[in-house]
Here is the input.
Amino acid sequence: MSKPYSAMMRAIAVDNSLPIEKVAVELWLKDLNNPLRWIVRPVLQVIFVMLLHLVWLFKRLPLPAFSAHQLLQKLICWFCIHFVKKEANLLILRHYATESNILNFLIANSDTQHNENLKPVNLYPKTIQDMLGASFVDHDQHLFDTFADLGEWQKLYNPKSHIQWEHWQPINMDEFEVEERRTQFLDFESAHALFMCLFCLLLTKEEYRDAINGFNLDQSIAIRIGQIIGDPSLSNMAYNQYPLYFVGPWNLGQRFLMHGFFTEHLYAELETRRTKSLT
Here is the structure.
C-alpha cells in the first residue's frame, strides 16, 4: 500500500495551471511517492555522476571510436522490464509518443520547400520490448533529422488559420502493455542515473554529446509551434534553451527530466486544441 501524499503533492495533484494530462500527473506523483527514490537516487547520483565524467573523459581520448547501439538498447529494455517500476516505464513510453506527436505536428504545419522529403515520425512503442526496434538513438536522430530537413524557419507573424493533424496519434493509455513484477523497485530518476554511464560508454562521443544537447532544441520547438498556433507563451515551458550552447554531462538528470516535462506540457496543450477543433 502506497503512503499518503504530502501537502505539496496534494497541491500539485490538482494544479492544472500548466497544461498536462491527468494520467501523466498521477504516474509522476506515484513515482515521486516511491520511498526508495529518496534513499537510492541520491546515492546513485553521487556515484554515477562521478563515473559518468570519467567515462566522458575516456571517450574523448584519442582512441578508435566505438559504439554498440543494439547492446545498449537490449540492456536498457531488460533492465526496465525487471527492475524499473511500472509507472516509470509508462512515463518512458509516453515520452516517445509525446515527442513523436510534437515533431509530426511541426512537420505537418511547417511551410518549407523541404517538406516533401520529410516523413512522419513513427516511434510509438506500446511495450518495453517494442523499444528494441524504437531505440533512444532513433528517438534522438528523428529530432535532429526533422530540424535539418525542415531547413531554416520562416518566422510567422500571424498564426495559421488551418492546422494539420494528419500524423497526430492521441495517447491511449489502454494501448500500453507493461507487466508489473515483484523485482521492480526503481523510480524514473534512479533508473536514469544508472543509464547515464551506459549511454556515454556505448555511443560514440559525438552521438552522446549530441544526445545530451538535443534537449536545448526544446526552446526552438516551442518558438516554432507558438508561432503556428499564435501562443508565444509556449516558450516559457522550455527549461532547456539556447541550442547553440553545447554543454557536458553536468546536471544531466535535471535537464533530461525537464525535457520530459516539456513534451508532456506541449503535447497536452496541442491535444486540447485538437479535440476542441473537432467540436
The first helix runs from residue 7 to 13.
